[in-house]
Structures are given as structure tokens and as C-alpha cells.
Amino acid sequence: MNFFFRRQQSLSQPFPGVEGLERVRLAVAGARSRDGDAFEELIAALLEAGSTGDLEDSFEALRVLTERPALLLRLDAFVRRQSAYSTRPAPSLTEADPVAFVLAASHADGRIRERAVRRMLNQPRPELMPFVTLRTSDWVRQVREPACAVLAVLLHENPLLATSATVRTALLINRRRRGAFAHGQLLVPLLAGSGTALSGRLLTAPEPSVRRFVLDTTAHRLGIRALAALAESDPDRQVRARAAEAAARQAVWTDQVELLRRLAHSRHAEVRITALTGLMRTGSPQNVVPHLDDPSALVRALAREAARRTGTDPLAYYRAAIQTTEPQVGAVAGLAETGSRADGPLLTALLDNPAPQIRVHTLRALRSLDVVPVPRVTALLRDDSTAVVKEAAATLAPSAAQLPADLLWDMLTDPQRPAVRRAGYRLLNRRDRLTALRAALVVSGDTHPRLAARGKNDATTQIRDLASHPWRTRPVPSLEASPAQAAELLALVEQRRTELTEDVVRLLRGALRPGPGDR
After folding, report:
1. Do 388 and 351 contact (CB within 8 A), yes or no?
2. pLDDT digits (tens, 9 = 90+) for 454-472
């Protein structure tokens, strides 16, 4: 079909040797950019798939396209713009090719769009439903109303036509001024007694937005076991949280404490907190107290409230828990939340724990209670764990001026570990201005790209701050560098000419050797 927006046959093929549906898949994958050529190629690939005469190939090409509803909306806008200024004749819509009248449903001429929508009623296929859904938000009433009627009739006759692509398209156009109809129409089969099969299928859709929509609509009709299974197994956090809330609500109403206990041991924190809240509401705080050392801060807070109701002392529990042979991360964090400076020795002993996560949380606890043993934490700046090194640097940051300068400079040139160099740079950066600039110049030549970029940006910012300008009202800071220090900085900046701009190098020379021609 010689469609109105198709380019001349001399258009180069971006996918040589690739034909049919594979070309459509490649064109869909490559149409993420806003380049018009990408949409031209996508349209050409769709038309090629539809020109074979095989209806199943045409529908499969449309299914590949509708897997990305956001792309479908962009393609719709592109076709409308192109056809509005095209001198080619309008499509006749006499062919049976579904690709042709689906693309015609995006034509700038409302009469063509209306005829294309009415044609879709004669072919009730799930691949066409996203296109019908899109036209229900059309700005022309004569197009919009038939599309709404077609969508309502098709969903009434066969609710299973509503695929996940249809739901996602409806969710996208629901943001539009006239886009609420499709969203509301999809609620009808889901809420109806015959919508069990539809909701069951959509709850297994790979797109989280579809599962959230269906769960929000049908949670009251799903069984408590199905909701619990969703809460424990769904990969999406929001779906798990909503399913757990619905399951816990039903469990509280029906006094199913065992199911709440099961959910309370889920590996997902959002499920545990919901289940434990349900246990509190059923009058079972004794089942919540064992979660005092949960990894989640919210769960620990709820468990402490349960402990208060049952007469358990959380602080005593945490102090005893961290002295066991295998203390839990939650116990260390819990002691930081409830303890005092008197617990510093107990926490300091955990810095020798073989588990890196325990050492990390111990450092956080010491910092939270303001009982940082500087010499002991300094030894962790070369810990085997990168996470411990990072946390030790954060813990020592307020005390950076007290640390041995030789140690920090040695860390900055560590040949093996970027984490150690990063920690040394972070601490040197907390000292005086001269030290921070020297460290930034050293790091700007680091072999680690991100660390080098950070050093370059910091050095540039610090050097520009040293320059005086007529519009600046604040005083220009001084490096207060000795001749030897100034010479070292100049040598470093000369070595970094490839990383820093010539203007930055000139500004530093002017700041170190001020003269009439430098300022």
C-alpha cells in the first residue's frame, strides 16, 4: 500500500537483509529516539509486514508495537503531523490489511479516523484494542464517540480482549483531558462477576503498572491466600505492599492470626510491617516482640511499641543481643536507636566482628551516639570491605583535622583500591583549603574515571573561587601557601593541563603569583 507518509523507495534500509516481523522488532527497539527517521522506518516495517497478505503476520506486528504504549502514543502524534502536511492522497481503507487502517486511525483527517475506528469493530482482536483505546481520547467528538462505543461493545462481548497493552494504553491516556473513558470502561469487566478470568490473567502481566491497576480494582474479590501469595512473590514492591495490606485486612477481620504470622516472616520489609500491624490489631503484641532486631527501622519501632505493651525492655534486649556470637544487624541498629553514650564500649567491640555488615552498622551506631573512637576507626580505613572503608571515612569526617596527614596522603595514592583513595580524598577535602586543592589536583589524574571527574570538578570550582571579579562583593579567599607549597601546586597544575582548561591553569597561576597582569 502506497501510504501517505511513506518515503520514496530509494530510502536506505537501516536493517539490510532483515525482513518481516524481525524488522518490525528492530524498528520498535530503535524508535526510542525522537528522530523522525526512526518513525519512518517503523512505519515502513509495519507496512511491509502487512503487505504479505498474511493477517497473522499483520496482527503480530501490531502486537509488537503495542507492547510499548508510550511509543504508540508518539507514533500516533507523528503520523498526525506528517499526514496534515502531506500531498499524498488519503488511504482508501478498502484493503483488509489491519496495519493499514490502524495507521489510518491516526490520520489528521477526522473522517478517515472515524472510518478506521468503525472498521475495527468488524475485527474484534486483542491486538487492535490499544488503538481503539487511544481513539477514545480523540479531540474530535465524531471520532471519540464511535471509539468509545466500539470499546464498550467489544469489552462487553469478550472481556478477555483487554490485554495488558490495552490497560497500559488506558492508564497513559487517563492523564489526558478526555482520556478517562477507557480507564473507567476497563473497570467494568474487572468488577463484574465474569471478570475473574480477566483479572487472573492480568495479574500475571509482566508490567507492574497493570498488576497495580488490577489489584487496586479487584483486591476485595481476591481470596486471602491469593493475596498472600502475591505479597510474598511479586517482584514489584508496590504490588507486594498493596497485596499485603489487603491480605492483612482480611486476616484481621476473620481473625486468621496464623497467616499474619507467616507474612510477618517475609523477606520483604513492606510485607512484614503490614503483617505485624495486623497482629497488633488482633491483640497479639507478643508475636511482634521477637522482631525487635528486624533489619527494617519501621519494624523495629513497631516491635518496641509491642515490647512496651508486654513489659519487655528493648534496651536490655539489644545490649544482650549484640554480645552473642552472631549478632544481627537489626540489634546493632536498634541499640543505636535506643542506647546512649554508655553503650560505646559494647559497640566498639563489634568493630572486630568478621561480618562486614556488622562493622558497617556498628560504625553508623557509633556515629549516631557520638562516641567515635577515632584511633580504632582509623584502622578501618584500609579494611578489606569497601563498604566498611566508605563508612569509616564518613564516621571520621568530622575529625578529619585530627588524623595523621601522612596516612591520608598515603591512602590517596593507594595503587590497588579506588575505595581507599576515595576515602583519603574525602578526608583530605575536610581539612584546610590548601590541602583540599592539592588533593583535588592529585585525584584529577586518577585512573578511576569517576574519582578523576570528581577531582577535576572540585579543583576547577576551588580555583575559580580564588579569582577576583568586579561583580563579586565577598572577599577573595587566600591559599596562604608557602613558596614550596605554591611550587608544588604549580607543578601539579602543569601536569593536569589535559584534564583542566587553560583558563583554570591561568587563574591558579595568578592566585599563587599575583601581579598586575594576572588579576
Report:
1. no
2. 999 998 888 888 776 666 6
